[in-house]
Design a protein that fits this description.
Length: 250
């Protein structure tokens, strides 16, 4: 949440400055243009255009405060947020390069050329970024979903991102812990807020982890292949899972 606050405050300050018609040195592309190129633009209009763009991003960023950070990846809002960013950037590029010229600038040929270049840039950004962001969103969404535990005749199947199947005859001990007895550091997996999945270092040991750290208790399973730490979506479900697993091992 700290990172979201930093982004929110930064957007607020930048948009406030730009909406006053000042701060053109903050605009990428314009601040590195030649003096001749800068002369073509209505600087106040350009600053306010970028300011409006940033204030819109500010509003959609504010929506992230409504959703708990550890579950934001599971909501459609997360995907909408990144799609909105792409659309906002594309529209801003188009408007700033076609609607922000001075009234006396009448080189229509250059304006048409600028429009085409802007459209190509916006289309390029969309074509390249959209699939990447969509893939990232889908990956994070899948990683945030709670694991599903299924018992076979002699196995415990964990259906999840980084899921696996544990042979019941390979389990040495199981315990139900109210608090996590180890400090966990990710080695190969995902840690989206309190949702931890994959391989983690547990005080020097490698553990296969499938937990929501904010929802104790936790089931510790010692097997021939190492340690597994799991829990379910609520205390009741975790305790029921432990009881079922304990009965199958007797």
């Amino acid at each position: 949440m700290f990172v979201v606050w930093v982004i929110f405050i930064l957007l607020f300050v930048l948009s406030a400055v730009l909406l006053t018609g000042h701060g053109s040195f903050l605009i990428a592309g314009y601040n590195t243009s030649s003096s001749e190129e800068k002369e073509k633009y209505n600087v106040q209009r350009l600053c306010r255009t970028i300011g409006v763009s940033m204030i819109l991003i500010l509003f959609v960023t504010a929506g992230l405060f409504v959703i708990p950070l550890d579950s934001v990846y599971r909501t459609p809002y997360f995907i909408f947020y990144f799609i909105f960013l792409i659309a906002d950037i594309g529209i801003t590029l188009y408007v700033s390069n076609t609607r922000c010229y001075k009234a006396g600038y009448e080189n229509k040929k250059d304006i048409r050329k600028s429009k085409k270049e802007t459209l190509f840039i916006a289309a390029g950004i969309f074509i390249v970024m959209f699939p990447v962001l969509l893939l990232v969103c889908i990956t994070m969404y899948r990683a945030s979903l709670p694991p599903v535990y299924t018992f076979g005749s002699d196995t415990l199947k964990i259906s999840s991102f980084y899921g696996e199947t544990i042979p019941l005859d390979g389990i040495k001990t199981i315990t139900l812990e109210e608090t996590m007895p180890f400090g966990l550091r990710k080695k190969n997996g995902s840690d989206l807020g309190s949702i931890l999945k994959g391989r983690f270092d547990a005080d020097g040991k490698t553990a296969h982890v499938y937990i929501d750290a904010s929802k104790p208790p936790f089931i510790l399973i010692e097997t021939e292949e190492g340690m597994h730490i799991i829990n379910d979506q609520s205390r009741e479900k975790t305790e029921a899972l432990y009881t079922q697993l304990e009965s199958l091992l007797k």
